[in-house]
Amino acid sequence: ESVNYELGTRATATRWLRFEATGFLSNFSNQVIVNTATDADTTLTDAGATNIYGIETGTTTAFDKALQVPTVLELGVRYTFARAVFREGPNRGNLLPYAPEHVLNATFDVEHRSGAGGQLAYSFVGRQFGDAVIHHHHLAELGIARQLAHRLAVGDQAVVAAIGRRHRHRDH
């Protein structure tokens, strides 16, 4: 069982710049988590009382609207800080497993009015522990697609070609 609170806002500073932020708090009376003991099988276990609190933020900048060009040029950045801790027992104050404090995602989208477009994406997941190991990673992706609206009788777009390259760097 949990009790959850959220408070947030969204604002449009100009027709090409949007912001949002949300603070949150979740109080669990008995949260179920993955057992990370080195001598145990991967199973779910009762963690007892836990708190998860933090803030989520995001911004979108539409460069095409700011520069008044017909091709969509949009940058989106989202960041989350979340602290998930045990409230009671021998682990009181310790972080929960598989609960990174920092997560950052950014995308840059380009789409021509012909339907040709692409996206460059970056993701960072901060340090977290699990299986007695601390993990964090970076991920960058590039996707290119051509969309043709007249190719489908149902719906308005079909992706007819997609080419992508993925690079993943993971630190242990």
Radius of gyration (Å): 21 Å
Given the helix and strand composition, which structural class is it? mainly beta
Rounded to the nearest angstrom, the distance between the terminal CA atoms is: 33 Å
Q: Note the total helix count.
A: 1
Count all strands and give the number.
8
Bin the strand percentage.
over 45%
> Low-confidence segments, ≥5 residues, pLDDT <50?
147-172
Q: Percent helix among the residues? A: under 10%
Q: What overall form do the CA principal axes indicate? A: elongated
| Biggest β-sheet description | 8 strands, antiparallel
Mean pLDDT: 79
Q: Looking at the chains present, what oligomeric state does this protein adopt?
A: single chain
**SSE ordering:** EEEHEEEEE
Strand order of the largest sheet: 1-2-3-4-5-6-7-8
What does this protein structure show overall?
The protein has one helix at 63-67, and strands at 2-14, 17-34, 44-62, 72-86, 102-111, 116-130, 133-147, 159-171. By secondary structure, the chain is mainly beta. It has an 8-stranded antiparallel β-sheet.
Summarize the structure.
By secondary structure, this protein is mostly beta strands.
List the helices and strands and how they pair.
Blueprint: E1 2-14, E2 17-34, E3 44-62, H1 63-67, E4 72-86, E5 102-111, E6 116-130, E7 133-147, E8 159-171
Antiparallel strand pairs: 1-2, 2-3, 3-4, 4-5, 5-6, 6-7, 7-8
Keywords:
eight-stranded antiparallel beta sheet; mainly beta; 8 strands; 3% helix; 172 residues
